[in-house]
Amino acid sequence: MNRFFNKVAQHLDKLDAESVRGQYKGLVQEFTLLETVFRALGEGVIVASAEGLLVYANPAAERLAHFEFSSAKNAPLVDVLPGWNVADLLSPPSDVQWSRAAMREITQTYPERRILEVQAMPNGEATILIVRDVTLAHAREADALESSRIEAIQQLASGVAHEIGNPLNALSLNLDLLARDLRKEPDPDRRARLLTDVETAKREVKRIDAINRGFLNALRPVKPVLKPGNLADPLKATLEELKPRFADRAIRVALDLPSALPSVIFDEGQLQQVFFNLIKNALEAMKDGGALAIAIDVTDAEVAISFRDTGSGIPAADLGRLFEPYHTTKGELGNGLGLMMCRRIVRAHGGEIDVESKEGEGTRFTVRLPRLEKRVRRLT
Ligand code: ADP
Ligand code: MG
Predict the structure, then answer these.
(1) Has this prediction a pTM greater than 0.85?
(2) What is the DSSP string of 114-169?
(3) Does the beta carbon of 65 lie inside 6 Å of ligand 1?
């Protein structure tokens, strides 16, 4: 196309007005078409001059990199894209025109966390930057990695747990036999002492057994049996079950339900388990009483159930480890498996669980589940 334009330019003085007009009209059409394509593109396109000034940017680029082309035109790219290491982008390896070598990843943290992939293509003196949002792709990769790692650990661990179960049973049985024999011991002092020892041993075996069972339970894969239903039902059932504990601790509970709840598909028993764990955690965080506000909010795509407590809150440093198995701040009284289970169940429902917290003020856990019609649409 360039050759053609050059030719026209060379012979411009020999062309009559009519053909110049024709050529010009053709050019305008061509330009309009290209402009339309660039405007519709999901990828951002940014063109920088040899001097590093902004020559062109399409709307996707404006959106991804947060600037306004009309006001940034001809400004130094360094100013338009703060934090982008522009110098590096504008001098891609000269022998590579279109390859990974000229590809950079940029992590934006404001206004939200986004990962952009930027491909720099030298074009004569100018440089063209192609910008893609790869945040989702990254998240999916990380998710897949995490689930395959969890699966491997699960297999290994449940094997070990089963193996522990058998000798534990034998041990328990033998301790029973031992106790029976000891009751025949004629010396009462000695009998009492030895029986106490056996009782202690039995208690410890029981404890290992409980830990082992909890462990196996936590590792069991969760395949929810999904049925359409009203989310308020498992929520109310769980509240009913936990009611005595609210009264015990002077905790006020407020339940805020929308007048109409859209259909969601879920496994009733599993969601009860999630709600139970979240409410129990909230109660445990409000040692001296407080308030628990439970609300269901409906948006276009999802139904969100939130649990806001006025409890101890969670130190920022702990937030990242909350869902890790065995992370607990409750010592003997906790096992650190509740939230891990909650997340696994919610994810198996195609949802997500979020947490916001301020130390000393309280915590809000939010369970988001996809709405039925959206989910169907997403699956097809
Ligand atoms: P556990 O309750 O057995 O400790 P969980 O997985 O349910 O295990 O919770 C892990 C940890 O997260 C808790 O030990 C606690 O420190 C913290 N946590 C969970 N929910 C809350 C909450 N509502 N308020 C404050 N801390 C919480
Ligand atoms: Mg818990």
Answers:
(1) no
(2) EEEEEEEEEETTEEEEEEEE-HHHHHHHHHHHHHHHHHHHHHHHHHHHHHHHHHHH
(3) no
